[in-house]
Amino acid sequence: MTPTPPIEPTSTSTITPTTPPDKTGLAGGSQGGFAGRHARIRGPRPFRVTAALVAVLLLVTVLAVVHDVVSKKSTATVAPNLAKPTLAPPIWENSAAPSSSGPTLMSNSPKTDPSGVPIPTGNIPGWTLVYSQDFNGNSLPSGWGAYSGQPGGTSDGYWNRANVTVSDGELHFRTTADDDPLRSNTYSTGGVNFYGHPQTYGMYLVRLKGDYEPGLEISDIALLWPSSSNNVWPPEIDFFEDSGGTRGAFSTTLHPGPNGDDCCIVNATLDNNATQWHTYGVEWTSTTISYTIDGHQWGNVIHKSQLSPPAQWPNINMDLDLQSENLGPAQPARPIETMTVDWVVEYTPSP
Length: 351
Description:
This protein has 351 residues and is mainly beta. Helix content is 11%, strand content 31%.
């Protein structure tokens, strides 16, 4: 609360201006006083005249000094009482007030993160942060591996490890011309698997954007895939998957079928400009799966109770995978960057 400024007391007295003496003596003019006495004295009295003149000069001097002091006091300017500038309130990544265990407070200094949104830090209600990566090095971090070879299920794509690079605080997915050993004039793409922290159930957030590629079908995908120790598929949880091109929408897909049977998929689509930076997320628990974009849940929550046999709820260790995959025969006219990732965070359900 801003304190109320003190109120200056108002004086009830008035200041009566002083009437300066006229040339004949003090206030009152020529009626009586010194003027009258001087008029009754006969003959010249030089020393008295001199004394009178000196007295008048002293009086004039005193009045001048008093006037000067009064004038200075009346014209003096009082410096205003300047309050300290109010600092802007701290900024939070979301509008909800954080809990005591919430994300770390961000400062008001200009953001230097490539995507404009710093990587989250700290736990949040219901979730404990177990891994974060902002790609500030110059190579893939420990626990990450790049794809190589032909994707399963499509003959149009090919992955090359060299298409995945790290620089300027970002993970880059690019293409290489004429790089498919089975076909000429075919561009390869890139993909990565984060195998460093597999887990059953968790929340994942990925800050990414795709390239604007009209006429192409190079799909950008963020997904959870069974860790290598399981040696099964499905399950699979795709929490971001576009169709390339102008990237005006993306979809999510749950593959809950039993091993070797891609049945019973549950998917949803959201219109969205995926060529701009967004944070895509999935919250996977023992009973629900929900999807988020920029911290907001969208679509319907998938409940375990909704699934019917032979569908099975994903309940095994999964890895985070990020990939660009060419789904059609069209090729870029030049090497391009198909996807850029700023940061990744992984949480586990709080006890």
